[in-house]
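User: Show me sequence and structure for the first protein, then do the same for the second.

Assistant: Starting with the first protein.
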Amino acid sequence: YFPETHGISFRIQISVKELLDTDVLLKLLFHLPVNYPSAPPDISVTSHQLTRAQCMDVKDKLLEQAKKHLSEPMVHDLILWIQQHLKDVIKQSATVYNEKTTLSKGTSTEDGIWMLLLHLDHMRAKAKYVKTVEKWVSDLRLTGRLMFMGKIILILLQGDRSSIKEYLILQKTSKVDVDSSGKKCKEKMMSVLCEAEVQSQHKRFQTFEVKEYSILEELQKEFENAGLTTLFSEFVPPLLK
Protein backbone atom coordinates (compact mmCIF):
# COMPACT_ATOMS: atom_id res chain seq x y z
CA TYR A 1 0.00 0.00 0.00
CA PHE A 2 1.74 3.20 -1.18
CA PRO A 3 -0.29 6.29 -0.30
CA GLU A 4 1.98 8.54 -2.39
CA THR A 5 1.09 6.68 -5.59
CA HIS A 6 -2.39 5.39 -4.89
CA GLY A 7 -3.89 8.25 -2.91
CA ILE A 8 -5.97 7.35 0.13
CA SER A 9 -9.32 5.66 0.71
CA PHE A 10 -11.71 6.06 3.59
CA ARG A 11 -15.19 4.87 4.49
CA ILE A 12 -17.91 7.01 6.01
CA GLN A 13 -21.32 5.91 7.27
CA ILE A 14 -24.03 8.54 7.47
CA SER A 15 -27.60 8.26 8.55
CA VAL A 16 -30.11 10.42 6.68
CA LYS A 17 -33.23 11.17 8.70
CA GLU A 18 -36.90 10.84 7.84
CA LEU A 19 -36.58 9.52 4.34
CA LEU A 20 -39.72 7.56 3.51
CA ASP A 21 -40.37 7.49 7.30
CA THR A 22 -37.17 5.62 7.98
CA ASP A 23 -33.52 6.50 8.57
CA VAL A 24 -31.35 5.53 5.63
CA LEU A 25 -27.87 4.36 6.43
CA LEU A 26 -25.52 5.21 3.56
CA LYS A 27 -22.06 3.68 3.38
CA LEU A 28 -19.77 5.86 1.28
CA LEU A 29 -16.29 4.88 0.19
CA PHE A 30 -14.13 7.74 -1.09
CA HIS A 31 -10.86 7.07 -2.85
CA LEU A 32 -8.84 10.26 -3.22
CA PRO A 33 -6.40 10.09 -6.12
CA VAL A 34 -2.89 11.50 -5.75
CA ASN A 35 -3.80 14.70 -7.56
CA TYR A 36 -6.94 15.34 -5.43
CA PRO A 37 -8.56 17.88 -5.29
CA SER A 38 -7.64 18.75 -8.90
CA ALA A 39 -9.17 15.36 -9.78
CA PRO A 40 -12.48 14.19 -8.24
CA PRO A 41 -12.52 11.23 -5.82
CA ASP A 42 -13.75 7.79 -6.84
CA ILE A 43 -16.94 7.15 -4.89
CA SER A 44 -18.76 3.94 -4.08
CA VAL A 45 -22.22 3.95 -2.43
CA THR A 46 -24.00 1.09 -0.69
CA SER A 47 -27.12 0.96 1.49
CA HIS A 48 -29.41 -1.83 2.64
CA GLN A 49 -32.45 0.44 2.38
CA LEU A 50 -31.88 1.48 -1.23
CA THR A 51 -31.93 -0.50 -4.45
CA ARG A 52 -28.74 -0.89 -6.42
CA ALA A 53 -30.12 1.50 -9.04
CA GLN A 54 -30.75 4.14 -6.37
CA CYS A 55 -27.21 3.71 -5.01
CA MET A 56 -25.90 4.24 -8.55
CA ASP A 57 -28.00 7.42 -8.83
CA VAL A 58 -26.60 8.71 -5.53
CA LYS A 59 -23.08 8.02 -6.77
CA ASP A 60 -23.70 9.77 -10.12
CA LYS A 61 -25.14 12.85 -8.37
CA LEU A 62 -22.18 12.99 -5.95
CA LEU A 63 -19.74 12.83 -8.88
CA GLU A 64 -21.67 15.65 -10.60
CA GLN A 65 -21.31 17.74 -7.43
CA ALA A 66 -17.62 16.83 -7.16
CA LYS A 67 -16.97 18.36 -10.59
CA LYS A 68 -18.29 21.69 -9.29
CA HIS A 69 -15.75 21.69 -6.46
CA LEU A 70 -12.57 20.78 -8.35
CA SER A 71 -9.35 22.22 -6.89
CA GLU A 72 -10.85 22.66 -3.39
CA PRO A 73 -11.21 19.91 -0.74
CA MET A 74 -14.74 18.63 -1.29
CA VAL A 75 -15.50 15.44 0.64
CA HIS A 76 -17.09 17.30 3.56
CA ASP A 77 -19.24 19.37 1.17
CA LEU A 78 -20.31 16.24 -0.71
CA ILE A 79 -21.43 14.56 2.51
CA LEU A 80 -23.43 17.63 3.56
CA TRP A 81 -24.93 17.85 0.07
CA ILE A 82 -26.15 14.26 0.00
CA GLN A 83 -27.62 14.56 3.50
CA GLN A 84 -29.73 17.48 2.28
CA HIS A 85 -30.60 16.12 -1.18
CA LEU A 86 -30.94 12.35 -0.76
CA LYS A 87 -34.74 12.64 -0.74
CA ASP A 88 -34.78 14.35 -4.16
CA VAL A 89 -32.29 11.93 -5.69
CA ILE A 90 -34.34 8.93 -4.57
CA LYS A 91 -37.62 10.52 -5.68
CA GLN A 92 -36.20 11.10 -9.15
CA SER A 93 -34.84 7.60 -9.34
CA ALA A 94 -38.21 6.15 -8.27
CA THR A 95 -40.10 8.07 -10.98
CA VAL A 96 -37.67 7.03 -13.66
CA TYR A 97 -38.04 3.42 -12.57
CA ASN A 98 -41.84 3.59 -12.73
CA GLU A 99 -41.83 5.17 -16.15
CA LYS A 100 -39.57 2.41 -17.41
CA THR A 101 -41.60 -0.43 -15.96
CA THR A 102 -44.94 0.87 -17.21
CA LEU A 103 -43.78 1.11 -20.83
CA SER A 104 -45.74 -1.31 -22.92
CA LYS A 105 -43.79 -4.35 -24.02
CA GLY A 106 -42.23 -4.19 -27.42
CA THR A 107 -41.90 -0.39 -27.67
CA SER A 108 -38.67 0.87 -29.12
CA THR A 109 -37.69 2.75 -25.95
CA GLU A 110 -36.20 -0.23 -24.19
CA ASP A 111 -33.08 1.59 -23.12
CA GLY A 112 -30.70 -0.18 -20.86
CA ILE A 113 -31.85 -3.79 -21.34
CA TRP A 114 -28.86 -6.05 -20.74
CA MET A 115 -28.12 -9.69 -21.36
CA LEU A 116 -25.94 -12.14 -19.53
CA LEU A 117 -24.58 -15.50 -20.66
CA LEU A 118 -23.26 -17.80 -17.94
CA HIS A 119 -21.64 -21.20 -18.16
CA LEU A 120 -22.00 -23.63 -15.23
CA ASP A 121 -19.71 -26.59 -14.84
CA HIS A 122 -22.23 -28.94 -13.22
CA MET A 123 -25.37 -29.19 -11.09
CA ARG A 124 -25.29 -31.99 -8.55
CA ALA A 125 -28.68 -31.16 -7.00
CA LYS A 126 -30.26 -30.32 -10.34
CA ALA A 127 -33.93 -30.07 -9.37
CA LYS A 128 -33.24 -27.78 -6.40
CA TYR A 129 -30.76 -25.70 -8.38
CA VAL A 130 -33.20 -25.17 -11.27
CA LYS A 131 -35.98 -24.16 -8.81
CA THR A 132 -33.65 -21.59 -7.20
CA VAL A 133 -32.70 -20.08 -10.57
CA GLU A 134 -36.38 -19.89 -11.57
CA LYS A 135 -37.24 -18.09 -8.33
CA TRP A 136 -34.45 -15.51 -8.73
CA VAL A 137 -35.35 -14.89 -12.36
CA SER A 138 -39.00 -14.37 -11.48
CA ASP A 139 -38.20 -12.08 -8.48
CA LEU A 140 -35.90 -9.94 -10.62
CA ARG A 141 -38.26 -9.93 -13.64
CA LEU A 142 -35.66 -11.42 -15.97
CA THR A 143 -36.38 -13.49 -19.07
CA GLY A 144 -34.30 -15.99 -21.04
CA ARG A 145 -33.28 -19.64 -20.99
CA LEU A 146 -31.59 -22.19 -18.76
CA MET A 147 -30.13 -24.56 -21.36
CA PHE A 148 -28.82 -28.12 -20.99
CA MET A 149 -27.06 -29.93 -23.80
CA GLY A 150 -24.97 -32.97 -22.90
CA LYS A 151 -22.60 -31.70 -20.21
CA ILE A 152 -23.04 -28.06 -21.21
CA ILE A 153 -25.15 -25.87 -18.92
CA LEU A 154 -25.82 -22.28 -19.99
CA ILE A 155 -27.94 -19.53 -18.49
CA LEU A 156 -28.95 -16.73 -20.87
CA LEU A 157 -30.78 -13.81 -19.24
CA GLN A 158 -32.19 -10.45 -20.31
CA GLY A 159 -33.46 -7.59 -18.15
CA ASP A 160 -32.63 -4.29 -16.46
CA ARG A 161 -28.93 -3.84 -15.90
CA SER A 162 -29.38 -3.53 -12.12
CA SER A 163 -31.39 -6.80 -12.03
CA ILE A 164 -28.72 -8.59 -14.08
CA LYS A 165 -26.06 -7.38 -11.59
CA GLU A 166 -28.27 -8.47 -8.69
CA TYR A 167 -28.70 -11.92 -10.26
CA LEU A 168 -24.92 -12.33 -10.59
CA ILE A 169 -24.45 -11.52 -6.90
CA LEU A 170 -27.09 -14.10 -5.91
CA GLN A 171 -25.55 -16.72 -8.19
CA LYS A 172 -22.09 -16.17 -6.69
CA THR A 173 -22.97 -15.79 -3.01
CA SER A 174 -25.88 -18.19 -2.36
CA LYS A 175 -25.62 -21.88 -1.54
CA VAL A 176 -27.21 -23.19 -4.71
CA ASP A 177 -25.80 -26.70 -5.03
CA VAL A 178 -24.32 -29.54 -2.97
CA ASP A 179 -20.72 -30.72 -2.97
CA SER A 180 -19.59 -34.32 -3.46
CA SER A 181 -20.39 -35.11 0.18
CA GLY A 182 -23.92 -33.70 -0.11
CA LYS A 183 -23.22 -30.47 1.83
CA LYS A 184 -24.78 -27.25 0.54
CA CYS A 185 -22.23 -25.17 -1.34
CA LYS A 186 -21.85 -21.98 -3.36
CA GLU A 187 -21.36 -21.93 -7.11
CA LYS A 188 -17.60 -21.87 -7.63
CA MET A 189 -17.39 -23.20 -11.18
CA MET A 190 -19.29 -20.50 -13.02
CA SER A 191 -17.92 -18.32 -15.79
CA VAL A 192 -19.48 -15.16 -17.16
CA LEU A 193 -19.13 -15.60 -20.92
CA CYS A 194 -20.79 -12.33 -21.87
CA GLU A 195 -22.47 -9.35 -20.20
CA ALA A 196 -23.60 -6.68 -22.66
CA GLU A 197 -26.39 -4.34 -23.66
CA VAL A 198 -29.13 -5.86 -25.82
CA GLN A 199 -28.87 -4.48 -29.37
CA SER A 200 -31.74 -3.71 -31.73
CA GLN A 201 -31.09 -6.85 -33.82
CA HIS A 202 -31.52 -9.09 -30.75
CA LYS A 203 -34.97 -10.44 -30.06
CA ARG A 204 -36.35 -10.03 -26.56
CA PHE A 205 -37.32 -13.19 -24.68
CA GLN A 206 -40.84 -12.79 -23.32
CA THR A 207 -40.53 -15.62 -20.77
CA PHE A 208 -37.96 -17.69 -18.91
CA GLU A 209 -37.80 -21.39 -19.87
CA VAL A 210 -35.70 -24.38 -18.86
CA LYS A 211 -34.85 -26.41 -21.98
CA GLU A 212 -32.89 -29.54 -22.83
CA TYR A 213 -31.32 -30.03 -26.26
CA SER A 214 -30.11 -33.35 -27.62
CA ILE A 215 -27.82 -31.97 -30.33
CA LEU A 216 -25.74 -28.84 -30.83
CA GLU A 217 -27.80 -27.72 -33.84
CA GLU A 218 -30.90 -27.41 -31.61
CA LEU A 219 -29.00 -25.23 -29.17
CA GLN A 220 -27.62 -23.15 -32.02
CA LYS A 221 -31.15 -22.64 -33.38
CA GLU A 222 -32.25 -21.24 -29.98
CA PHE A 223 -29.52 -18.60 -30.23
CA GLU A 224 -30.26 -17.91 -33.90
CA ASN A 225 -33.97 -17.37 -33.18
CA ALA A 226 -32.97 -14.74 -30.63
CA GLY A 227 -30.69 -12.98 -33.15
CA LEU A 228 -27.64 -14.12 -31.16
CA THR A 229 -25.76 -16.16 -33.78
CA THR A 230 -22.47 -14.31 -33.14
CA LEU A 231 -22.79 -14.85 -29.39
CA PHE A 232 -23.27 -18.57 -30.01
CA SER A 233 -20.33 -19.01 -32.40
CA GLU A 234 -18.01 -16.99 -30.18
CA PHE A 235 -18.69 -18.71 -26.86
CA VAL A 236 -20.39 -22.09 -27.26
CA PRO A 237 -18.15 -24.18 -29.59
CA PRO A 238 -15.04 -23.63 -27.35
CA LEU A 239 -16.99 -25.29 -24.49
CA LEU A 240 -17.13 -28.55 -26.46
CA LYS A 241 -13.38 -28.90 -26.62
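Switching to the second protein now.
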Amino acid sequence: MASVASPVIFKEFCPLYYLLNAIPTKVQKGFRSIVVYLTALDTNGDYIAVGSSIGMLYLYCRHLNQMKKYNFEGKCESITFVKLLSCFDDLVAVGTASGRVAVFQLVSSLPGRNKQLRRFDVAGIHKSSITALAWSPNGMKLFSGDDKGKIVYSALDLDQGICNSSLVLEEPSSIVQLEYSQKVLLVSTLQRTLLFYTEEKSVKQVGTQPRK
Protein backbone atom coordinates (compact mmCIF):
# COMPACT_ATOMS: atom_id res chain seq x y z
CA MET A 1 0.00 0.00 0.00
CA ALA A 2 1.40 3.38 -1.00
CA SER A 3 2.21 5.70 1.86
CA VAL A 4 0.26 8.92 2.09
CA ALA A 5 2.41 12.03 1.67
CA SER A 6 2.37 14.34 4.65
CA PRO A 7 0.59 17.64 4.03
CA VAL A 8 2.63 20.70 3.20
CA ILE A 9 2.40 23.37 5.87
CA PHE A 10 2.76 26.98 4.78
CA LYS A 11 4.17 29.45 7.25
CA GLU A 12 3.99 33.21 7.20
CA PHE A 13 7.02 35.03 8.57
CA CYS A 14 6.93 38.53 9.95
CA PRO A 15 9.03 41.33 8.44
CA LEU A 16 12.42 41.78 10.10
CA TYR A 17 11.51 44.98 11.89
CA TYR A 18 14.60 44.78 14.13
CA LEU A 19 16.68 44.94 10.93
CA LEU A 20 14.62 47.46 9.00
CA ASN A 21 14.38 49.84 11.96
CA ALA A 22 18.18 50.02 12.09
CA ILE A 23 18.33 51.34 8.51
CA PRO A 24 17.29 54.99 7.98
CA THR A 25 14.52 55.68 5.51
CA LYS A 26 16.03 59.09 4.63
CA VAL A 27 19.42 60.79 4.96
CA GLN A 28 20.34 64.45 4.81
CA LYS A 29 22.77 65.58 2.10
CA GLY A 30 23.35 69.29 2.54
CA PHE A 31 19.92 70.90 2.25
CA ARG A 32 18.39 67.86 0.57
CA SER A 33 16.63 64.93 2.15
CA ILE A 34 17.32 61.74 0.18
CA VAL A 35 15.15 58.62 0.36
CA VAL A 36 17.11 55.43 1.09
CA TYR A 37 16.19 52.44 -1.07
CA LEU A 38 17.35 48.88 -0.31
CA THR A 39 19.00 47.59 -3.48
CA ALA A 40 20.88 44.34 -2.71
CA LEU A 41 20.69 41.48 -0.21
CA ASP A 42 22.68 38.43 0.85
CA THR A 43 22.56 36.26 3.97
CA ASN A 44 24.40 33.44 5.69
CA GLY A 45 24.36 31.92 9.16
CA ASP A 46 26.29 34.81 10.68
CA TYR A 47 25.25 37.97 8.81
CA ILE A 48 22.56 39.72 6.82
CA ALA A 49 24.07 42.15 4.29
CA VAL A 50 21.89 44.88 2.78
CA GLY A 51 23.06 47.28 0.09
CA SER A 52 21.43 50.68 -0.37
CA SER A 53 20.91 53.40 -2.94
CA ILE A 54 23.16 55.80 -0.98
CA GLY A 55 26.26 53.58 -1.26
CA MET A 56 26.03 52.36 2.33
CA LEU A 57 26.35 48.68 3.20
CA TYR A 58 24.38 47.65 6.28
CA LEU A 59 25.73 44.49 7.89
CA TYR A 60 23.66 42.87 10.63
CA CYS A 61 25.43 40.35 12.88
CA ARG A 62 22.90 37.68 13.83
CA HIS A 63 24.85 36.43 16.86
CA LEU A 64 25.46 39.83 18.48
CA ASN A 65 22.25 41.51 17.25
CA GLN A 66 24.32 44.46 16.05
CA MET A 67 24.16 46.55 12.89
CA LYS A 68 27.34 47.95 11.35
CA LYS A 69 27.76 50.28 8.39
CA TYR A 70 30.40 50.33 5.66
CA ASN A 71 30.70 52.70 2.73
CA PHE A 72 32.83 53.67 -0.24
CA GLU A 73 34.86 56.84 -0.06
CA GLY A 74 34.05 59.56 -2.54
CA LYS A 75 31.00 59.49 -4.78
CA CYS A 76 27.76 58.25 -3.25
CA GLU A 77 26.33 55.65 -5.63
CA SER A 78 23.91 52.76 -5.46
CA ILE A 79 25.09 49.31 -4.39
CA THR A 80 23.87 46.76 -6.93
CA PHE A 81 25.20 43.45 -5.55
CA VAL A 82 26.56 42.01 -2.29
CA LYS A 83 28.05 38.58 -1.63
CA LEU A 84 28.97 37.16 1.79
CA LEU A 85 31.49 34.42 2.52
CA SER A 86 32.37 32.68 5.77
CA CYS A 87 35.71 30.87 5.60
CA PHE A 88 38.67 31.38 7.94
CA ASP A 89 37.70 35.06 7.96
CA ASP A 90 34.33 36.65 7.25
CA LEU A 91 34.30 38.48 3.92
CA VAL A 92 31.76 40.56 2.04
CA ALA A 93 32.12 41.71 -1.57
CA VAL A 94 30.20 44.75 -2.76
CA GLY A 95 29.52 46.01 -6.30
CA THR A 96 28.12 49.37 -7.37
CA ALA A 97 26.25 50.97 -10.27
CA SER A 98 29.42 52.52 -11.74
CA GLY A 99 31.43 49.28 -11.63
CA ARG A 100 33.32 49.69 -8.37
CA VAL A 101 33.99 46.46 -6.47
CA ALA A 102 35.31 46.28 -2.93
CA VAL A 103 35.96 43.46 -0.48
CA PHE A 104 35.65 44.00 3.26
CA GLN A 105 37.53 41.62 5.57
CA LEU A 106 35.49 41.77 8.77
CA VAL A 107 36.70 41.91 12.35
CA SER A 108 36.24 38.76 14.43
CA SER A 109 36.38 38.29 18.20
CA LEU A 110 37.50 34.65 17.83
CA PRO A 111 41.15 33.83 18.61
CA GLY A 112 43.46 33.78 15.61
CA ARG A 113 40.99 35.61 13.37
CA ASN A 114 41.19 39.05 11.80
CA LYS A 115 41.28 41.90 14.35
CA GLN A 116 41.25 44.93 12.05
CA LEU A 117 38.76 45.86 9.33
CA ARG A 118 40.46 45.80 5.94
CA ARG A 119 39.25 46.75 2.48
CA PHE A 120 40.45 45.58 -0.91
CA ASP A 121 39.48 47.34 -4.16
CA VAL A 122 39.12 45.82 -7.62
CA ALA A 123 40.71 48.65 -9.52
CA GLY A 124 39.27 50.21 -12.63
CA ILE A 125 38.35 47.30 -14.92
CA HIS A 126 34.56 47.42 -14.71
CA LYS A 127 33.00 50.56 -16.16
CA SER A 128 29.32 49.69 -15.73
CA SER A 129 26.91 48.27 -13.16
CA ILE A 130 27.96 45.13 -11.27
CA THR A 131 25.34 42.42 -11.73
CA ALA A 132 26.96 39.29 -10.20
CA LEU A 133 29.65 38.26 -7.72
CA ALA A 134 30.98 34.79 -6.84
CA TRP A 135 33.51 33.61 -4.25
CA SER A 136 35.74 30.56 -4.17
CA PRO A 137 35.15 28.60 -0.93
CA ASN A 138 38.51 29.67 0.58
CA GLY A 139 38.04 33.40 -0.15
CA MET A 140 41.15 33.63 -2.33
CA LYS A 141 39.24 34.16 -5.58
CA LEU A 142 36.46 36.59 -6.42
CA PHE A 143 34.70 36.77 -9.77
CA SER A 144 32.65 39.84 -10.73
CA GLY A 145 30.39 40.41 -13.73
CA ASP A 146 28.77 43.55 -15.10
CA ASP A 147 25.89 44.53 -17.36
CA LYS A 148 28.22 44.98 -20.37
CA GLY A 149 29.31 41.32 -20.22
CA LYS A 150 32.74 41.71 -18.62
CA ILE A 151 33.93 39.13 -16.07
CA VAL A 152 36.87 40.00 -13.84
CA TYR A 153 38.92 37.60 -11.72
CA SER A 154 40.46 38.99 -8.52
CA ALA A 155 43.11 37.04 -6.61
CA LEU A 156 43.17 38.01 -2.93
CA ASP A 157 46.06 37.49 -0.54
CA LEU A 158 44.51 38.39 2.80
CA ASP A 159 47.77 37.88 4.73
CA GLN A 160 49.71 40.28 2.49
CA GLY A 161 46.78 42.64 1.91
CA ILE A 162 47.02 42.31 -1.89
CA CYS A 163 44.29 42.16 -4.55
CA ASN A 164 45.30 41.54 -8.18
CA SER A 165 42.55 41.72 -10.81
CA SER A 166 42.34 40.87 -14.50
CA LEU A 167 39.69 40.59 -17.22
CA VAL A 168 39.12 36.90 -17.99
CA LEU A 169 36.02 36.83 -20.19
CA GLU A 170 33.87 39.21 -22.19
CA GLU A 171 30.37 38.32 -23.32
CA PRO A 172 28.14 40.30 -25.73
CA SER A 173 25.29 40.61 -23.19
CA SER A 174 24.77 41.33 -19.51
CA ILE A 175 25.96 38.86 -16.88
CA VAL A 176 23.05 37.71 -14.71
CA GLN A 177 24.62 34.99 -12.52
CA LEU A 178 28.03 33.60 -11.52
CA GLU A 179 28.83 30.47 -9.52
CA TYR A 180 32.30 29.01 -8.91
CA SER A 181 33.34 25.48 -7.89
CA GLN A 182 36.52 23.45 -8.36
CA LYS A 183 38.19 25.59 -11.05
CA VAL A 184 34.99 25.94 -13.08
CA LEU A 185 32.98 29.17 -13.31
CA LEU A 186 29.33 28.89 -14.29
CA VAL A 187 28.28 31.99 -16.21
CA SER A 188 24.73 32.95 -17.17
CA THR A 189 24.06 35.92 -19.45
CA LEU A 190 20.94 37.28 -21.08
CA GLN A 191 21.78 35.18 -24.15
CA ARG A 192 23.38 31.94 -22.94
CA THR A 193 24.84 29.84 -20.13
CA LEU A 194 28.42 28.58 -20.26
CA LEU A 195 31.14 26.88 -18.24
CA PHE A 196 34.47 28.71 -18.05
CA TYR A 197 37.39 26.46 -17.10
CA THR A 198 39.73 28.80 -15.26
CA GLU A 199 42.90 26.70 -15.58
CA GLU A 200 42.59 26.04 -19.33
CA LYS A 201 40.80 29.36 -19.97
CA SER A 202 38.36 27.50 -22.21
CA VAL A 203 34.60 27.91 -22.64
CA LYS A 204 31.90 25.27 -23.03
CA GLN A 205 28.36 26.38 -23.78
CA VAL A 206 25.45 24.75 -21.95
CA GLY A 207 22.81 23.90 -24.54
CA THR A 208 22.78 24.93 -28.19
CA GLN A 209 19.99 27.45 -28.62
CA PRO A 210 20.47 31.11 -27.61
CA ARG A 211 17.99 32.67 -25.19
CA LYS A 212 15.37 34.93 -26.72
